Amino acid sequence: MVCGGDHDDDDIHDGCSGDNLQVLTRGNTDQPFKPLLQAIQSGDYEQFEAAAQKYGNEALCFRDEWGYTPAHWAALYGNAEALKYLVARGVTVDTSCYGIQGSKPVHWAARKGHTAAVQVLLQAGVDANVADFKGLTPLMTASMFGQTSTASFLLGMGAQHHLTDINGDSALHWASYKGYADLVKLLVYSGADLTKVDNFGSTPLHLAALSGNAMCVKTLCQNAEVSLQPKDKNGKTPLSLAVNHRYKEIAGVLNSEIKKRKKVIMPGGLIQTALNAMFGRSIYSKGPLLLFLCSFLMWWYPLYVYKVIPATWNLTRGCHYTYMAWNVFMWICWITTKHSDPGYLPINSGRYIRIIRQLPTFTCDMRTKKDILARLCHTCRCVRPPRVKHCRMCNRCVKEFDHHCHFVSNCIGIGNRSWYFCFVISLTMNCSYVIYMVSCTLNVEGFNILYVLALLQAIAFGILSLAVTVTICSSVLLNLTRNELINYKKYAYLKNEEDKFHNPFSRGIVLNVLEFFGCTRTKVEKNEDEFFCCD
Ligand SMILES: [Zn+2]
Ligand SMILES: [Zn+2]
What we know:
The protein is mainly alpha-helical. Among the domains are: 164-265, Ankyrin repeat-containing domain (Serine Threonine Protein Phosphatase 5, Tetratricopeptide repeat), CATH 1.25.40.20; 287-343 and 406-531. The protein contains 25 helices and 6 strands. The strands form 3 sheets. Strands 1-2 form a two-stranded antiparallel sheet. A two-stranded antiparallel ribbon has the order 3-4. The chain has a two-stranded antiparallel ribbon with strand order 5-6. A hairpin with a 4-residue loop joins strand 1 (376-377) and strand 2 (382-383). Helix 10 (171-178) runs antiparallel to helix 11 and helix 18 (317-339) runs antiparallel to helix 21 (417-445). It is elongated, with a radius of gyration of 30 Å. One zinc ion is lined by residues 391, 393-394, 404, 411.
């Protein structure tokens, strides 16, 4: 869609507003159609059945001058029983209406958030990704009208979030444009492409800036891969659009996010940059892994074998033996961390499928419903217990997700965190040995730029690994993951009734340490079922 310009969601024929039954029958001289539509609208099944039996299949398959069928109206009013009746009578429930939109009943049901009607239509064989003449799928339609639970249901039933309409807009573009923060979150969680550009050069962030909803903008900005100052085909950035539309709060959010990212490349933010490189803010990057391997295998080890050993073997023989032993240990830990399962949650779980199927008939309050929706991962098709986070790099949900480490190119979670801890400790030890041995070599052989470079590199790696060791030690002692330590404000389970920080997982230092090394079961594993209110 063109930023600040027209949008065409209201092109759907006026009749679709469904508030005025007269629109339905306007121009219809065919009287049998009218009682049937009245019965559909009233939701009175007996009245509908009586009208259907009286007027027969001719009325059930009737199409008015706009091509609307009884199935369209049943979908619009969320009359799932009438739809079931139509399906049972073999009536086609997948007909496009006439005109430029060509909506099918499933689009109307999605638009109004009638999940039960959508379910009947999908069960009748309607494709969850069926497009109308403008390329809009039911998921896009639900996103356009803020129907979060219907969108969630559609995602669970196989709706694809990467599809786009004829203007190149995806469901995320629409949810952002309309300012539905919950939907934006749902689509972001589901792995929607945050950087997709539509035919007008607009990203979801451009459209969120136009929505007037600062929460949508914040949600998108929190993701490192979202560029904050992309230009659309008119050369406009999200910030310039927000300023033009006088959305001060959004402009403020964008300005502070831009500043935050700039800080990272300023001298004061060097440590942050180094930590980001260590923990991998640069998404999808293999750079840190290559840097780590090359600096050991292609640079330091040859220098050690050909220069340092001959110069210092007799002086520090014991030190060399210990260093080699630490090296063997470090590589064992590195390989095990890299190749072990960090604690991936099984995909396609039966519980997820059961919840998705029950969604249309959930009777619990909105808050509980939202809570349940937030627990669903539509990418892994699983239900996430607390402390589980979906890793965007691995594209899997990880139990007690700590972070995705680019130096080992794997997630760090409950399954491999103890190996990772040993790896970081051994790396710190190795760096201190290298500093000592290179200093000795410099003493014996005099100044050589190669030794100075090796020394600087060992100091840099040493500081980083020491910082990581300290971070891990604090998370071991507190029984919180690094992700929880950083994002504690985001997690409801880390807050008490007064909305202040509260750590329900700490069981005392000894038990916390034992739990970290897998010697005792975690509290969440024990009480997992408490966290689910439906099954
Ligand atoms: Zn997941
Ligand atoms: Zn990962």
